[in-house]
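INFO  loader      accepted 1 record
INFO  loader      residues=274
INFO  predictor   begin
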Amino acid sequence: MLDDATLQQLATELDESARQRVPLRHFSQRFPSMTIDDGYRVGRAWVALQRGRGDPVIGHKIGLTSRAMQISSQIDEPDFGTLLGSMKLVAKAGEELEIPVNRFLSPRVEVELAFVLKQALSGPVTVEQVLAATDYVTPAIEIIDARIEQFDRDSKKPRKVFDTISDNAANAAIVIGEGDARYRANPLTTDLPWCGAALKLNGVVEETGLAAGVQGHPAIGIAWLSEKLAPWGETLQPGQIVLAGSFTRPVPAKADDRFEADYGPLGVLRFRFV
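INFO  predictor   done
INFO  writer      dumping tokens
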């Protein structure tokens, strides 16, 4: 287990990496005995630094929800991170949101559903309880980023899950819609596993997927997260946004790239990196 001084050191390094947009070497290589719990402790220490500057917690994200990603990361469950106010970007219906590319190191776009809660969830809960506690479900784009380099600059070895978890589960930004009633799907009457989307990059369909790809039902991850947060003394709170996990592969983005995420009956999100 990493000591408190090391946790704070690594959190500060992540903070500087995000500010300077310079990737770090793998923590797991520097500290071979690092554990998954160490990763979460580092991530929380970094979040605490950001909260100390007035950046509020607005929700949570779930990552590594597909079985293929878990196998490649050598884990048997998803991971999770914290969403902060500075990460929230709003795409207005019928308009194209402009996103400064220089706020990221190497942004990638993922297609998801987000649950906006109206009641608290704590500890073990069922999918039915998650749906009852949800105000609405909305299309959401997660922009992931890495403050820790994907491949070690010398050995070329890929980063490990401890590194990704330390990096607040690769959180960078979320895009949600505003101004279209379709953006607010009723969780009790919408067949959520069959909600899908087509993601276009510069006019070409790059990815398609169904929310059933997220563990069979996107609410399963929310129930899992509620239980996972309990040992950390945390609960899911009313008003919070919870990203349920991506049902497409990450698509790299660069300046001048235009994206359109068409969720059919749930509306369309349009954005461009500038």
